[in-house]
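Subject: Interface between my chains keeps coming out wrong

I've been trying for a while to get a sensible model of this assembly. When I model each chain on its own everything looks fine, but I need the whole thing in one frame so I can look at the contacts. Pasting all components below, labels as-is. Any help appreciated, I'm running out of ideas.
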Amino acid sequence: MSAPRSSTVRTTGRRRALPMAALAVTLVAASTALTACGGSGGGSGGGSASGPLKVWVRGAGDSQKAYQMVFDAYTRKTGVKIQLFMTNTDFETKLNAAAAAHKLPDVVIDDGSQLGAFESQGIITEVDKAKIAGADQVSGAAWKSVVDDQGKTYGVPFSAQANVLLVRSDWLKKVGLQAPKTWADLEKVAKAFTTQDPDGNGKNDTYGLDVPGSTQRGYLSWYWSNFLYQAGGNFLVPSGSGGFDSVIDSPQAVQAARFLEKMYCTDKVVQPGALNNLTTDTNTAFQTGVAGMYLTGPYAYATMDATAVKGKYDVVAPPAGPKGVGSLAEGTTVYAMAGSKRAADFDTLASFMVSAPAQKLGMTGVPTSTIVRLPINTTVDPAKVHADDSRWQVAQQVYANSSTYEPVSAPDWQTYRNDASESLNKMLSGCDDPAKTLSSLDSTYTSLLKK
Amino acid sequence: MTLTEDRPGRGPRGGRPRPPAGTRSPSAPRALLRWPRAATPWIFLAPVLALFGVFKFWPTLWGMYLSFFQVRPYLGNKWVGWANFRTAFHDAALRSAVEHTVIDALVTVAASAVIGFGLALLLEGPARHLRILRTAAFLPVVTAMVAVAELWNTILYPGGYGTLNTLLGHLGLGPEPFLSSPHSSLASVMLIQVWKSAPYDMVIFVAGLAGIDKQLYEAAAIDGAGAWHRLRHVTLPSLRPVTTIVITLGIIRGLRVFTEIYVLTGGGPAGSTETIVTYTYKQGIQNNQLGLASAVSTVLFLVTVLLTCLTLWWRRRKEA
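Reply #2:
Try treating it as a single job with all components included. I did that and got this:
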């Protein structure tokens, strides 16, 4: 939005005209945030019993090609046409606008972490697992990720992933160390990367850890949760009565926060500016040799291999903390939208998307966009599909053996994640006491849970 | 929006064609003629008013209405009375966002006005080289904020090899953390805002300077006033209306600061650059609390109106 222009005003009308102009300008100013919320959706509405099935997918770029390939295969198989709308920009806002107009699409494909939010908004409907052909081939962990706090299934998993550790192999060689297996190793390698000039340029310009520490979209919490699970902690746990209890101030959680803080504040092995960094920034930091270790999802392989860092890094399981190896599990979910008259078509689409051919297509159809990171179908072996790339096996093993999903079924889980990010970001920037930080976050969680 | 034309029926009517006699009673044509005259400005204004109505005024009113609801687009909104306002007023994060916004607005308005005025004094005049310099100085204003912010992000990179830190290193200073420390982040963001808005103020001041009667300077010079006295007693008083506009626009700009902060720091680190609008965005878009976000926007709107009225009142008192 550009700055408002000054209004030229005649002397006679100045007294009346200036306040009017000022009022107009302020109206414009104040409504900036609100118009964003009231903007119209990018696609046309759903709810019709015939015509193409309306599907919205959060994503952009090459993933559009990949999804189109999967949907084309579905259309060839069933004859049901699909009208696809994809965007990464304000996807949930556009969905809100569609919801307000009661013109939701028939199907939405979005992060698994939206489950609680979508359910509490009433925009998704329950899925009958019995109607999904091949439901028994879907892994138990993936099914669990689409179950709400009452045990109801709200969506069908399409893709899964767990965070892995990307380490600069050339830097390891230079400092004479192995890829880290434990927290102690991680710290040792991080220190060596920071102080021993692993890129050999004679300058003190490298760092050990690459941390997306911004609070936007909850990035820091997302990153830190790996350490939380490695320590044996969690954010929320089911209370038994259908709700959740906060365990964010547990000794394990404090330990995980202290570990990250030690590396940031004491060892100073984290890349500069980390607390404002989003994944685009941390991707660049890893690609350009600013930081040498990056905990992230396997989708980063394609991103990294497109740059000069290709072939210069290894992929290993995240380090073991006090509890053992732990990693954040995430997924992509196919949601059935409220008000849709196409329940039967949803079932056939979801059945197709979990099937082995669709999963394989999502993994390899467009090499630059692996919309299926790890298959949720147990009959698909990622090691065979990506036969030439053992990095996917690492990811598969981490996902199968040591990963934990965030409590995505908590109503408005995003709010909890954002609050955790704010608290941790504040803690790191002030090098504050982790126990105090998490205790106050616990009070926030407790009051949110009461709502 | 000033009507300068004569009201029909009162002004001289010479030259206006009379309606054919005998078709209507004498009063009817006059009424018919009066209507289009009065409506003319509104017809011209209609397109822009319609656009503003749909995209600005209606959303603003709708936002005020939503402040009293828990917004649930699909299930239907739930009336919560003043609850959203209570939540907003009790939120420590919003209080610190208000503090940052006020500091940001005051500092950037003052600094931009002073620098803009200085630039205007240096670059005022019809000479061609001045026009080129003015255009160059104005470039930050017309450059897209997101692009500018990304550029500044690189310049202010906190490592020892960031652009500005390299320069500081040559002087034996730094490296400074700039945007990455809560102690310097707000100042860094303000620096960028001043860089962008000072030239805008400059243009307004240049227009103001051009409007000052040259005879006043001549008279002052004859009376023996030096450069400083001419500036103090001729230039500054003559620029009072212009200064009011600069300050009013600056405050409004300061209160709704968003883009540069969202791109540069996202409100961090540790919420040190969180402003009212970034807070509103987070609540509304990230946390899906559209009712609360509307309540905060409504308060911001009312405060902005109030501040604008205060500025106008202050200016009138000064000018009277």
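Reply #3:
Confirming on my end. Chain A has two domains: 53-160+330-405, 164-329+408-450.
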